[in-house]
Amino acid sequence: MTIPTHVQAMLARMRARFTPEKLRAQMEARNAPFRTLRPVRAASEKSVLGYWDRLIGPATKADQDLIADPATLQTAEVYSGNIENFIGTVKVPVGVIGPLRVNGVNAAGDYHVPLATTEAALVASYGRGAYAATKAGGIGTAVLYEGVIRTPAFVLENILNAGLFVEWVATHVEQLRAAAEGTTRHGKLTSIEPVIDNDVVFLICRYTTGDASGQNMVTIATHALCEAIARDCTVPIFKWYIEGNFSGDKKASALGLMTGRGRKVSASVILSDAVIAKVLGTTADEMLAYGRIADLGAKLSGQMGAQAHYANGLAALYIATGQDAACVAESAVGFTRMERRDGGLFCSVTMPNILVGSVGGGTGLPSQSAGLNVLGLKGTGNGAALAEVTAALCLCGEISIVAAIAAGDFTRAHENLARLR
């Protein structure tokens, strides 16, 4: 057996920097006194400046411009419901693309889409995809499924009691639904699906959440459901947990890919050969040729689904509109398809885990509220439309990147817009 050269090189670099004795002393546990920061939710100008003065050091002019700017200080209270130990805001550049024409079940119109990112070339790429799609007549979209899940876990004595527990749950569904829905005006419990693993039972609790993304909503509702089970169930329960790590919350999972978590949306457009040539600088055949290689790469690497870069558009849109950015981990799975059709090149995405809301969470904060206003999708009645625009945006990104790589333009675009700026 031989040690790979890159491992040998790493060891050599470490030896050049450290001796074992120095590292041993450096890595020993230290019991020096410290004073921890307790979670404080109430925010004010005084509390923000207090953190800077006591913990970080007096804010310099640069700090004030970037972190605790005057406008933030004057409105510090509005952030109290979204963060603890508030010290200011971080400014992320926001670009806009559009119009992106969407001809959907819920979203119908021309949208200008704000994207918050520090990655040069991203806005240009999505903008090019949006231009191509809009010239082709727009993107058709539909929400196919809606349901946010929470999966509590119950530990029983043995597999027999696990079965009896499931039987009890199945015969008390209405009681449990009442307990869950009693915590929310907008959430509706649509199903409880048991999964048994010997003496452990997971309950897949599915909810519709109105126009909110619904993460906190379903957690609170499921907690009430679990408390009702713990109080009334005739089968002894050793222990229960509000989340058994089965739901796919903020992680890619096969369950989410197959059944969806949030809103499942499909979006498609047919690009004519003329649009592909003029806007994208390539041909349908070249895009299909690269698409076959990309699909093979996805399969061989074990990708969850098959797509190019949903996460780029999702992260930029989520940050710009006050969504939970961590949900990109589960939202960025799905399937991109490209096929030759009579009218040109059929391009589609199907994304089962889009978690967005037009109300709640961070959507009411000043900058994020402005982002939703740019879209025209702020407030009640716009949650499903926002999900469809999100899928349409991701399709634009897929079209643009596939065309760029197929045409050999991908590196040049990043050199021109990023590295050589």
UniProtKB/TrEMBL annotation:
The keyword Oxidoreductase applies. Its EC number is 1.1.1.34. GO terms for biological process: coenzyme A metabolic process; isoprenoid biosynthetic process. The keyword NADP applies. Signal peptide: none annotated. GO terms for molecular function: hydroxymethylglutaryl-CoA reductase (NADPH) activity. InterPro entries: HMG_CoA_Rdtase, HMG_CoA_Rdtase_cat_sf, HMG_CoA_Rdtase_CS, HMG_CoA_Rdtase_eu_arc, HMG_CoA_Rdtase_NAD(P)-bd_sf, HMG_CoA_Rdtase_sub-bd_dom_sf. It is an enzyme of class 1 (oxidoreductase). Keywords: NADP, Oxidoreductase. Belongs to the HMG-CoA reductase family. PANTHER family: 3-HYDROXY-3-METHYLGLUTARYL-COENZYME A REDUCTASE. This is hydroxymethylglutaryl-CoA reductase (NADPH).
